[in-house]
Amino acid sequence: MTLDEKLARLRAHRSNIHRYRRLLSTRLSDIEREFLSRRLSEEQSAIDALSATAFPFGSHLRDPISAAASRVA
């Protein structure tokens, strides 16, 4: 996979994370909320794994919004 493909995938994962966070701020059933929370976690894991392969010499890069949210939680 080329760097451009990895970057495109990172953008897609980041977009999904933003969408799931927006949805989590709406009225949802417990099942819907659990599903979105699980998907949010899976997307963040995918970003973490892809970042490690796309940028092997940098520090572990994360979406800045996700990093801030994890520090608050």
Topology:
Layout: H1 3-24, H2 30-54, H3 64-72
Helix pairs in contact: 1-2
Q: What coarse outline follows from CA principal-axis ratios?
A: elongated
Rg (CA only): 13 Å
Order of helices and strands: HHH
- For the residues shown, what is the average pLDDT? 84
H/I helix tally: 3
Domain module tally: 1
Question: Structural class given helices, strands, pairing?
Answer: mainly alpha
The level of helicity is over 70%
Most strands sheet: none
Q: What distance separates the N and C termini?
A: 34 Å
Which spans of ≥5 residues are poorly predicted at pLDDT below 50?
none
Structure keywords:
77% helix; mainly alpha; 73 residues; single chain; elongated
Summarize the structure.
This protein is mainly alpha-helical. It contains three helices and no strands.
Please provide a written account of the structure.
With 73 residues, this protein is mainly α. The chain has one domain (3-72). The protein has 3 helices and no strands. The chain has helices at residues 3-24, 30-54, 64-72. Helix 1 (3-24) runs antiparallel to helix 2 (30-54). The protein is elongated and about 40 Å long. The model has no long low-confidence stretch (mean pLDDT 84).
